[in-house]
UniProtKB/TrEMBL annotation:
Family under the similarity heading: Belongs to the FMN-dependent alpha-hydroxy acid dehydrogenase family.
Swiss-Prot/TrEMBL cofactor(s): FMN
Start and end residues of each FMN hydroxy acid dehydrogenase domain: 8-377
Coiled-coil regions listed in the entry: none
Swiss-Prot/TrEMBL catalytic activity: (S)-lactate + O2 = pyruvate + H2O2
UniProt name for this protein: L-lactate oxidase
Any Pfam family: FMN_dh
Amino acid sequence: MSDEAVKSKLSPIYRYKDLERHAQKKLSHEVFTYIQSGSGHEETLRANEEAFKKWKLVPEFLQDVSTRDLSISVLGQTYPSPFLLAPVGHLGAAHPEGELAVARAARGKQVPYVASTVSTYTLEEIADTLGDTPRWFQLYCSKDPELTVSFLRRAEKAGYSAIVITIDTPALGFREADLTNQFFPVREGYGSANYFQDPVFRNRLDVTPEQNRAAAIDELVNITFQPKLTWKDLAFLREQTHLPIILKGVLHPNDAKRAIDYGVDGVVVSNHGGRQLDGAIASLDALPKVAEAVNGRIPILFDSGIRRGPDVVKAMSLGADAVLIGRPYVYGLAYNGQAGVEEVLSHLLADIDTTLATAGKSSIRACQAPEFVQHLSNS
Ligand SMILES: Cc1cc2nc3c(=O)[nH]c(=O)nc-3n(C[C@H](O)[C@H](O)[C@H](O)COP(=O)(O)O)c2cc1C
Ligand SMILES: CCCCCCC(=O)C(=O)O
């Protein structure tokens, strides 16, 4: 039987746990663990999903829900899907076609894609594959400001329409599972493309990455995170690009207020899927106070723990204008490449659509109402 025939015989996967299990079967122990795990004791990883169970939707019926609109508006753009694909690095570890397979799936469904700095393919290759699909670029501000500016210029040239600066990584989280496995994907060759192709990065090296790959990776690891980064550097970055800047990793309402003071265009309420500060507040629990602090002045995006349609709707009703998903699409990729990602996206879109119908809402925007959710402690 041909590969295509085998693929077409796979039964559809609806449950997140099944998706995770199928992905696990396809991956080495180290790669699966890298994707699935969180930092430390994984308190925050677990809290992210638990938080959704503490909020209950309160539907109102006898509304006309015969047509339902899933589109959202963020930063002056209308997107057909209320979720975006979160930046996830090293996707070549999950599937040989990595980010390109994800980009093809995103293009088919017109789901916006946020490309990671540490992608396996270059930001230009991802952009070419995405065609006219909306795309944002996630930036790790490195220790070398010239390299950071070079990434910005390349992203602008490749048609990315926003820059997502991840602020929750002054250092990589203490990831006990990866440390135990001694697994670091960039050392396996999965997240270096943007660096190795970059003239500024190449200039920092004594010999080219082609001549001494190990030394080039050491340099990448050494400079990727900048623990000295402060709000003042943000003012510099603001001057460097005309693109909207979105800060990813906001959990404290004070950071949301500072973001606005520094001219930032949006925030992502996120704890990096429980991979950074273990013991950090669940993303969903942080959302209401951030929304109160922002008070509609800039868009709020949300991620960490979204697994199904009602999760999307709960986050939107607590103040998000859009959400991002991480692990679900990565498992789809691992399990069945582009088709696996397409399957995950189709099922999530269908679940959101059904959630609207069964909640008496004709649009996702109508879900942005605090009275639509109730915390268990108030019931
Ligand atoms: C394997 C993996 C790699 C990630 N790489 C990045 C990255 O390169 N940049 C970034 O800002 N966030 C990264 N994240 C975090 C995601 O953008 C997102 O915040 C998180 O996955 C959301 O949680 P969820 O997986 O529960 O949906 C990564 C997450 C995973 C699972
Ligand atoms: C030096 C490269 C580190 C990449 C970290 C990618 C990431 O954010 C993750 O959560 O994993």
